[in-house]
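hey so i finally got around to running the thing on that chain from the lab meeting. sorry it took forever, my laptop kept dying and i had to restart like 3 times. anyway pasting the input first so we r on the same page abt which one it is
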Amino acid sequence: MTTTAHHGPLCSAATCHRGLRDHELDNRQTICSPCLHVLSVWLQTELPRQIIVLEGSRQRETTGASSGGRTAYRTAPLPGRDDVLNLLGPAAWSDGIRDPYGQAHTDQHGPLPIAGVLVHWVRLVCDERRWNPPASLAPQDLAAWLAHPPVLDYVSRRPWAGVLRDELAELMRTIRNVTRLRPRRRPVAQPCPRCEDLALVETDHQLYIDCTSCEAMFTRDELTLAASITVAALDQASLG
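ok and heres what got predicted. didnt touch it at all, straight out
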């Protein structure tokens, strides 16, 4: 179980207020395990799916009638959607100038392309660890490289790990605002083992189930165990 109570350093992500637990401190992590897990989910699962949607949304919607298998436009076809094309734009290995904690210093207007965001972090890890980069700078390949377990394990212990988490969170918000495709959140019909409120919520692809009341976090196995303990206690009470 993960809660907001802490006695040591906080997770270094500005978008997180959890304290680092003993096992995370022993592993020399600078971000908490839930933040590390959500990085893995974004990079391995959601981002590739969002890119597929973006690829299918390159062209603006047009008004026209189809005739004989060919579309007859009342007006000339509109150019590609600027927001989609910008997100799917290419990135060079040396694209942009950043400080060690991710602050961009470029002439880029609007959000950086997905590849432009990811390539910086791939390059930073490669420079620090002397690892080989992915063969392709396509956003899917950059995301898959960053999601590799040894890479994420290394990232979790770096002082800039929280900045990476915050930057990817902003990137995912930008992408979702364009695609209108967001992970679903569903209520869980079980009281929170910590505060006993009916406020548990599970989110697509997430390892942890959140309590929106006390902000505790639980795995599904922990909730199953808590439910079993509750049932056993009720049975014992009824026998007494």
